[in-house]
Amino acid sequence: MQPDPFGNLKDWGPVLELICKLADDGNLRECQPGLTRILRYRDNWRLREETLNRIGKISNPADALVRQVLNIIADENLYDEVRILACDTMMELLKNSANTFDIQTEKELLEIVENLLSSQHPPQFLNRH
User: Fold this and answer.
1) What pTM did the predictor assign?
2) pLDDT digits (tens, 9 = 90+) for 94-111
3) Is the pLDDT of residue 1 over 80?
4) For burial by CB atoms within 10 Å, which of 2, 71, 95, 115 has the most?
């Protein structure tokens, strides 16, 4: 399988179908570079949300994918719902990672959590799970 089989993200219908099929077949782990690209893509909220909904079950996620989820969490210019969804996804990824993140990713995770806890945010970012 290609690491990025998703092609043109502007044609989002087939991309969405492929994400769902790969998730249902348990093959998302093999496409992490493409999933990371989808999460970076700001022009389609459906793709971003569906990707966040599906990637939490990836065992041993790549650091680049984890960092992109962290970027979504930290981005105050994004709408709260997607940031909350990214928090939920991050919790799943942490459960599935078996502590395999590199030091830089761990540092970024701690910094983002500290920033969220020390700044004014809507109550939904506090006391989650």
Assistant:
1) 0.85
2) 887 766 778 888 888 888
3) no
4) 71
- What residues make up the domain containing 37? 12-125
Closest CA relative to residue 62, chosen from 33, 82, 84: 33
Looking at the structure of the chain, the number of domains it has is: 1
Q: Is there a domain that residue 7 lies in?
A: no
Q: What are phi and psi of 76, to 5 degrees?
A: -70, -10
Give pLDDT, residue 108: 86
Decide if 69 is inside a domain.
yes
Residue 95's SS3 state is: helix
> Would residue 4 count as lying in a domain?
no
Q: Is 119 left (phi over 0), alpha (psi -120 to 50) or beta?
A: beta
